[in-house]
Amino acid sequence: MISINEGKEKIMRKEAVKAAAWLMSACLLMGSLPASPGRTRKVSAAEPEIEGFATKEELLTDYSLSGAADKKVQKVMFGQNGRGAAQSWYIAGKDPAEENGLVLFAATPLKERQWFYSPRVTHAYEANWRCEYKNNPSQVNGNHYGGSEIRSVLKDMSSDPSYFSGAEQRVMRETAIRTADQENGSIYTTKDKLYLAQGELGSKQISVGTNEESNVNKGLKISLNQYQDGSGDWFWLRSPCSWYDLCVLAARSGSAVDYHSISINNAHHVAPALQMNLSSVIFASSAPAASFEGNQRTKGRALTMRYDAGRSLGSETILNQEKVEIRGVAGNRYLVVQNKNGAWRKKVERETTVSAKDVMIDGVTLNSFKNCKVWLEKTDADRITRATRPNQTETPSAKQTFDFYGIGTSAGKDVHFAQLEYAGGDHAILHGLNEYGSQIHPYFTGRYAYIKVRSKEGKLLFFKEYKGTDWTQKHDTKIPMPEDARVSIYHAEPDRLQTNSDDSLKKNAFKNTYIYVVKDHKLVSQKLEKQQFEFLGLGDWEFAKMDIIGGSAWIDTNYTDYGPHCYFQNQVYASIIIKDQNGKVIKKKEYIGQKNEPVGSEDILLDEGYTVTIYHAEPNRLRTNNDQQLKQHMKENTFSYIYKNQKLEEIKR
Description:
Elements: H1 4-32, E1 53-55, H2 56-61, E2 75-80, E3 86-94, E4 101-106, E5 111-115, E6 123-124, E7 139-140, H3 149-158, H4 166-170, E8 172-173, E9 175-181, E10 186-192, E11 194-195, E12 198-199, E13 205-208, E14 220-223, E15 235-240, E16 248-251, E17 267-270, E18 273-277, E19 281-285, E20 294-296, E21 303-308, E22 315-319, E23 323-339, E24 342-355, E25 360-361, E26 364-365, E27 373-379, E28 385-387, E29 400-408, E30 414-422, E31 427-432, E32 447-454, E33 460-467, E34 475-480, E35 486-491, E36 497-499, H5 502-505, E37 513-518, E38 523-525, E39 531-536, E40 542-549, E41 552-557, E42 572-579, E43 585-592, E44 600-605, E45 611-616, E46 622-624, H6 627-630, E47 638-644, E48 647-650
Parallel strand pairs: 2-21, 21-28
Antiparallel strand pairs: 1-19, 2-3, 3-4, 4-18, 5-17, 6-7, 8-18, 9-10, 11-18, 12-13, 13-14, 15-16, 19-21, 20-24, 22-23, 23-24, 23-27, 25-26, 27-28, 29-30, 29-36, 30-31, 31-34, 32-33, 32-35, 35-37, 37-38, 39-40, 39-46, 40-41, 41-44, 42-43, 42-45, 45-47, 47-48
């Protein structure tokens, strides 16, 4: 046992080592590092370190709970606990087996009063536990972690939105951990997103992260002297006692790993570990996710992760350290400024400029943005805070970009399958991407997105369609963009179409379609005008509708009890026929009097010169939004049109 005085001496020696290391580091930095352009330094006389701000690289290398003198102790916020409160975690370090894998350990219990396993008997091994053995056993003890109730509870937590939102679950990685089987004298592997720490009787340390079969206690160390959960109560480990089949080891802050009165049917705290995938994280800040304006102290607060928003939030550019120029920002975005004293937030949208003198942090008005971190951010409903990269000082790009995303992946990001980039001139570039080598969105077996470009005269210049079952491909294509060209962009899930200026590029949508005209080498969003046809039946009930807009004919079929008009037994009551320039039938839709058609919506792309023929047995029940243009030349209850200049023109008969 270590005496109290010996413990104090150890702590004093650690503090002395920390102080010496800090002084040496500061001298080296101030005396030997050149101030070369673009170089980032943690500490210098001109650029002091901002406490409560960490890049992704710093998150992976600078923090630990092992007690090492060269590591910092830091908490982060992620998910919620069983009471619905925000959950804090200690950073344990980088998982040795995974790139961009940050291991966290619960700073407070996710759940209180949970038993390990209730049956007090040896029981049969079950394959559905998914424990990886060299040879599966037939029997295991009650303290077997792989088949325990507490592991089932952790599995449920990891997929429960009351603990972790869907987006948070996607950035949690499974970790392969090895655990001893007391009954069979062997080691097995489990792979879970939430798991208990490993411990050794009498040790002042526990371990988390990927370990080894040859040494289950090898992993990222957590010092129980440094770990403070505020309760002082026991929390479960996954390690079985080596001599008693109804006993599992446990730990508590400031103490050593023990087994005293720890039986598997006792109730103790659940403090698990997890691994975050930092691939899409760009930095973390102790400034809480912005939800209101004003300033706030950040010292001593837990960090909140900021995920890369790309160009979807707009841009902020620092000019001469005196002002921030903000462009292309839609609503519900915040400008955040952080320095060593705290953080300041302001809600911004559209085009605006913020002066340093507009910013007050902890009672002090700024004279410049020097020694500050500046970024834009927005927090989603699922607690994911997306941000721009801080301190962008280069000239903002004049490019207009559209990023096409699809189904979410196990990597925690949506499939990024294409980007349309236009920077003026006579052409744009369509970048086909292959980030994950997967299908775009297999739930959509048909059209998922498209890009269509027509000349001013209506000539088709370019068309690219993406089906959900297509595989992502890496390929760049040059797209002609002459002045006055008309560009149509469709995405089945418009929230997965991101632009670098939502305010100017994602408006005036109709049924997930956006229309632009090239004006002065810039894509200008168009207010969409539609031609509307309503098909009414018995009792003037609308059984179908067709809208001509944005280069498409949208046909919607509605539910009816007995078909559009039950008096027209086995007769065509209405129809729509679309043909191309050569007379080939592109679409034929018929509505039989007493027959119910499947409810749904169809999008038929129209090209210049296509013809549309509409028949209605009771033409007075065919309604349009402009009868003067669309219902003047009927023949045998039929109306005929040609598609010219982005609209239907009625053909005289």
